[in-house]
Structure formats: C-alpha cells, structure tokens
Amino acid sequence: MILDPIDGDGVRLRRWRPADVDDLVAGYSDPQTRRFMSALPVPFTRRHGEWYVNEAAPAIIAEGGAAYAITDPVTGQVVGGAGLERVVPPRQQAELGYWVAPGARRRGVATAAVRALSGYAHQTGITRLELLTHGENAASQRVAMAAGFAREGIRRGAVANRDGSRDDLLVFARLAGDPLVPALRLLPDLPGGELSDGVVTLRLWTDRDVEAIYAACQDEEISKWLPMVPVPYRRSDAREYVKATRYAWRDGTNATFAITDAATGAVLGSIGTRFHEDARATVGYWVVAEARGRGAATRALRLVAAWTLGELGIERLQLMAEPENEASCTVAERAGFRREGVLRSYLPTPKRGRRDLVMFSLLPQDQRSR
Q: For the chain, which has fewer Cβ within 10 Å, the N-terminal or C-terminal residue?
C-alpha cells in the first residue's frame, strides 16, 4: 500500500482519482509534455485518461511502483504527475518520472515533488533512484540537480521515438543517504538565458539551428581554418554538433553559443569555450560569410570573455589562430587579447600537415585595466 498523500514544500502528492481525468488529458496534450514523452498516444483522449486513472496507475502500484497526481495543497488543483516505475527489488532500484502542467512551470513544483517522492521512496527501502531525461530537456535536468540527483552519464539509444529513431537519455541518480542539497552545477544558467550587448546576442544552440549550421559550414573558409569540420559537411553533422553542445554544457566541459543578430535573431556564427581543470579556458569561433567585417566576432568574444573571467572565475582565457588567419588574429587583438608567441607545428590538419598557431591570452586584470 503506497503512502497517500505525500506532502512536500508547497505540493501534495496523492493517488489519481476519476475526477482528475480532464486535468490529466490537458497535461498530456501539451506539446512540451508530448515532446519528451514519446510513448504517449497522440491525440491523448479522454478515453486514454480514463484508462490511465482506472487501470494503468493501479497496475503500476500493484507492481511495486507509485503513481501520483501533483496537486496544490490549498486549492487541490492538479498541477502535474509523478511516479516510480521499473522497480527492481533485488537491486533496491527504481526510476522516477514526472511532468508539470504548463501553468505551474517555473514555480518549483517539479523540484518539490521530486524531493518529496524521493524521500518516500528511500523510506520504503529503495536505495538507488534513477531519473532519465533528454539532453535538450534543460528544465528537467535543472530539476534533477536541484533535487539532489547527480549526473552519471548517457544511456545510448534508450528511448524510441514515434518515427522509429532512438534518442539518448542522460542518467541522473540519487542514493539513499545522499545529502538533500542541490548537485553542483559546473555552468550556471545565463542571465536571462543569453548574453547580449544589444547588437549581437549569444544563446545556446537548438535543433531549430541545424539548417543554419549546415549552410554555414558549406563555406570553404570555415573548413580551412577549422580542420575538425567534416568535409563534406552534412545535416547529420549539424545535428550531432547541436547535440554535442548540449551534452558538453551539462557536463561543464564546454560552453558553445550561437552568435545571433540581436535585432533579427539571424545566426551569424558560433563561439565556444573549452574549460580546463586549472581555471584556464580556450575560446574559438567562426562567422558566416555575410557577417564578416561587421564586428560580430569581436563583440561575441568580448561577451564571452566578460562572462568567463567575471562570472565563472576563469583566471586565463586563451585563443589560438594560424598566423595566416589575419582576420581571426585581428579579432583577438580588438577584443583585448595579448599576443604571446607562436606554437610551432602545433596543429595537425588532414590536408595541410602540421600548422603553427599564434597564442593569445586575456587575464582578469587585463579587463579591469581597460
């Protein structure tokens, strides 16, 4: 018999009731919910809702799991759902999942519900709780970490999509006895979700940018100075690029942004920072042909420099460019970077052999003195 109800910080978890069907149907019909719950029928009808409340939820409970409506403890309004499934008693293990109605998002509902349900699960003898989420579901990842779940890795091809393809899922876990404190986030959220100087705006890459990335990387100038860019460059490469930037952000290893026109939103290029273990980071960028010579790269570099050296506490930001890449060297100097010297035969390239690189650097005191 599961505990009913479970009270959390501003939420109450209770078993589903027949009167909740309309709220369940509305929640499961939300595009954002459907996006990350590919097993849901589309459309999700009242008949589906009645089946879940009357049959599916009781079956989950009968198998040792839990299925709760998340409600407002004052009004009783259903604001989401949470549950435990895939319970493996010999391993004392279960998987936790949840969803939140659109009108209740960004209010801490999910975090409170996950914390409450996690505490109950551990009390029942479940030692290991897993929470799986898509790489692009940043909101869910923030909830997991705020609820004390630690990022462990990637489960490849873990979920099937409606079109037959399979997606990777990020694995977060919480063990009984883990302190109920937010897991360390290596990279904080951007202020307002972006960095901007009013002329260019830096934001995270999304799946909607695949076509823009693909078109930009047909430019021979980009592939010339960036030997890691595959030739020929395909749309699948662009999709993998976007996916890799998301995973790296959550890992705290790289922060890669789309450089966009602040007025129109058009993609102008990319800028990324790779973090090293000794409070040092390396930055690199590319700009589409039509945006070159307009100062976009310099502005983007200044924004990233201020963020990494100021907000993140990086002590040395470095940049490397081939001596022949005069445009890139000029951008570095205009952004305040100092030329340090030449790294001879530093960069191996597939077609041009090993190349020299000019090393530039920017330190916090350099910015303070400007």
A: N
Whether 246 and 332 map to the same domain: the answer is: yes
CA distance 315 to 288: 30
Please write the tens of the pLDDT for every residue from 260-306: 999 999 999 999 999 987 889 999 999 999 999 999 999 999 999 99
DSSP class of 107? T
CA–CA distance, 193 with 213 (Å, rounded to integer): 21
Give the structural domain span for 277: 191-368
Residue 186 located in a structural domain: no
Map tokens 């907000």 to a residue.
311
Left (φ > 0), alpha (ψ -120 to 50) or beta: where does 41 sit?
beta
CA gap 368, 343 in Å, rounded: 28
- Under 8 Å between Cβ of 134 and 167: yes
Which residue from 301, 288, 282, 272 is spatially nearest to 197, judged by alpha carbons? 301
Q: Which residues contact 155 (CB under 8 A, 6 or more apart)?
A: 132, 168, 169, 170, 171
